[in-house]
Amino acid sequence: MNELLTRFERTGPAASDLPVLITPDYQGEPLQAALPRLRGEIDQALLRVGGVLLRGFAVPGVEHFRQFAADFGHPLLSYEFGSTPRSAVGGGVYTSTEYPAHQTIPLHNEQAYTREWPMKIWFHCVTAAPVGGATPIADSRAIYRRMPEAIRRRFEPGVLYVRNYGDFDVPWQDVFNTEQRAEVEAYCARAGIRWEWGPDGELRTTQLCQAIATHPVTGETVWFNQAHLFHVSNLQAEVRESLEELLGIDHLPRNTYFADGSPMPDDVLDEVRRVLDAETVSFPWQEGDVLMLDNMLAAHARAPFQGPRKVVVAMAEPHGNPDGF
């Protein structure tokens, strides 16, 4: 036990308690078997801090991880209206985002670019990368508090997300898990998404979503959007220039605007990213780790890595307001 505690290394702001470290009562204690005694501690820590790291428990395989997540009482969710490529492992477990190893995935709350999202998200480290590959996290309440007041006011009415699916982004067939246009249109109608079909079958969607949200249990205000991920400024400079020249600003794979449709200046998103960086907590994975987050209270990211890495994900407890925010 003491060895596990002393081996826990983290970097981040001094005021952050993320993540709460929970270790076994004895070496080899099965994680799933430990849940009954840990449940109250986990529930309290999630609401107080936003995330827990379960380290040193026996997690023999992905199925044991899946069952552990499912035992919290909510069916595991399928990955619908996704924004990044993932592969289904089975039973509500997915691979983490399948972006090239050299790329950073910035901090974000899962599916904060929609009006419905999972309240709980779990990560299980099957194989820790020999170099890099951390899953940094941050307190969404602290991000909101640190965000400059002028930016909070500008974002408060919401974020407008525009997506053009096709050769330069995830195909709409993969995003909506269907080949049928009628099913896409039905989903969009339910979710408050405007859609438009192009002459060659391409799809464009527009949706106004929350930028700032209130946690349904704690009543606390959180920064809750993915404007900095979807905005064109998230692209590498040469990629952005090429796409703008080839497609035009209105037909980029994805972009974000203020609620009134006006452009978001690059420098505003740069300031948002500085706030996110200042609140980032990072720790190296160990094989067998399970990280559980309250998806509204804690954001997550992915650091670049070298060598093999396998981290799987499960989500549960849908929440949101499809009719508005």
Automatic annotation (TrEMBL):
GO terms for molecular function: 2-oxoglutarate-dependent dioxygenase activity. Its cofactor is Fe(2+). This is TauD/TfdA family dioxygenase. It comes from the Bacteria. The keyword Oxidoreductase applies. InterPro entries: AlphaKG_dependent_hydroxylases (IPR050411), TauD-like_sf (IPR042098), TauD/TfdA-like (IPR003819). Residues 28-314 form the TauD/TfdA-like domain. It comes from Chitiniphilus eburneus. Keywords: Antibiotic biosynthesis, Dioxygenase, Oxidoreductase. The keyword Signal does not apply. GO terms for biological process: antibiotic biosynthetic process.
